[in-house]
Amino acid sequence: MTSKAKPVVFVTRRLPDVVETRMRELFDTRLNETDAPLSQADLVAAAKIADVIVPTVTDRIDATILSQAGPKLKLIANFGNGFDNIDVATALQRGITVTNTPGVLTGDTADMTMALILAVPRRLAEGFEVLEHSEWTGWSPTWMLGKRIHGKRLGIIGLGRIGTAVAQRAKAFGMSIHYHGRRRAPAALEQSLEATWWESLDQMLARMDIISVNCPHTPATYHLLSARRLKLLKKDAYIVNTARGEIIDEVALTRMIEAGDLAGAGLDVFEHEPAVNPRLLKLAKAGKVVLLPHMGSATVEGRIDMGEKVIVNIRAFMDGHRPPDRVLPSML
Ligand code: 8YV
Prior knowledge:
Blueprint: E1 8-11, H1 17-26, E2 28-30, H2 40-49, E3 52-54, H3 63-67, E4 75-77, H4 88-93, E5 97-99, H5 106-119, H6 124-132, E6 153-157, H7 161-172, E7 176-180, H8 187-193, E8 196-197, H9 201-207, E9 210-213, H10 227-230, E10 238-241, H11 250-258, E11 264-267, H12 278-285, E12 289-291, H13 300-318
Parallel strand pairs: 1-2, 1-3, 3-4, 4-5, 6-7, 6-9, 7-8, 9-10, 10-11, 11-12
Bound molecules: 2-keto-D-gluconic acid.
């Protein structure tokens, strides 16, 4: 790249118009007009020509792709908060900077988490379905009874930005807040949430009414909710996951709900997206689970803010500054 040339920025999926327009003004932007997820060969081709790649959760930027990257590729500016789609360690070893988009999708994802916390115990999807199939024969005092939300214990796994925003919402709904994380939260945050820290995840699981998964997917959190740990939950407990499917052993979870060893689940993410285990779909029909297609951060405002963050990161990097949202080795 000569000093005046605009960097080649390869964007793997369609982004909001306003974001694409701005990117076109600022960079030599290559867009994926079809919006179809790219194949590995497409990603290799992009990595060969680009200064910057802007991937999303649907692109696996692994060591195979990185090993074939051209010498110009110096930045992967992920359009997303989670970066488990990128082999960050290999990228950093190769001198490629990685950035993400934290902060701007916190509230939206927490809202969706709260929606699932409400939807599953209060049987929202089942209610819709009765009307949809014109099966409502009238009100009855003992029909369609769910479980009360307020007064219940919510166990949050990962009290980071999103976990904290979930806790604030859940507190307003009268739930008692419990959490487990690698580190204890600052005392002021604990106090404001009236939150209880559990050093032992196992002990927390055994005592909660609802579990919300809000930690990132890393090698350490893969199947954190393993078959063994899921068995620690109370039989009438629920699990909500808006983080990553890989954090829960999905087959074990499905089996437990089928067997009546767990009351239900609200899942926005899956282990093998976009594939969804047909047995989970069957449980959804039976009203035991509420399933959403990875919509946690899917708001117009959120997507535009994510795009803005990507642009800020690219510009800072190209101007020779440290981009604000670098993924650091300590975050892996
Ligand atoms: C995004 C997400 O939709 O940002 C994240 O980590 O899980 C999602 O909300 C997706 O990652 C965009 O790439």
